[in-house]
UniProtKB/TrEMBL annotation:
Stored CDD domains: WHTH_GntR
Top-rank taxon: Bacteria
PROSITE patterns registered for this protein in UniProt: HTH_GNTR
Record Pfam families: GntR
Organism of derivation: Streptomyces rhizosphaericola
Domain (HTH gntR-type) ranges: 15-83
Name assigned to this protein: GntR family transcriptional regulator
Keywords from the named record: DNA-binding, Transcription, Transcription regulation
Entries under SMART domains matching the protein: HTH_GNTR
SUPFAM superfamilies to which the protein is assigned, alphabetical: Winged helix' DNA-binding domain
Length: 143
């Protein structure tokens, strides 16, 4: 069992810290970076890495437990109980490969990270009117 999520907290985002943690775990689950059986970092580890109060992390983990995505095992830690990954988002999927190629082209044409983000938000808004694009807060996963 591995723990592959590293949380990135954006204190200027206006999003509650515990929700940032929840969303980053959900994103890691969708992208396949976290799988069923994986152990999440302890509240103390998250506090040391992010300077977030351990109770904030525990609140996020309780929310993940309520959603059926994680379970707390007394004395052992918090573990992922199910995946949100879809085949289309797997690292080797054709859709993801196309997106990676597009990102390479954008970089080659001189677009900055902010330019790409703005373009993505604009395109997303046109394709999915009325829906919010999740930010992921810097990705949050490391392999």
């Amino acid at each position: 069992m591995k723990s592959v999520v590293v949380f990135r907290i954006d204190r200027r985002s206006g999003v509650a810290t515990y929700l940032q943690i929840v969303r980053q775990v959900e994103q890691a689950l969708r992208m396949g970076a976290l799988e069923e059986g994986d152990r999440l970092p302890t509240a103390a580890q998250v506090a040391a890495d992010t300077k977030v109060n351990p109770n904030t992390t525990l609140k996020a983990y309780r929310e993940l437990e309520r959603a059926g995505l994680a379970e707390v095992r007394q004395g052992a830690g918090t573990f992922i109980t199910r995946s949100l990954a879809r085949p289309q988002s797997a690292p080797d999927s054709p859709l993801r490969a196309s997106l990676a190629e597009w990102m390479d082209r954008a970089r080659a044409e001189g677009l900055s990270g902010q330019d790409v983000s703005d373009l993505l938000h604009s395109a997303f808004g046109a394709a999915y009117p009325g829906e919010a694009l999740g930010t992921g807060y810097g990705g949050g996963q490391e392999g």
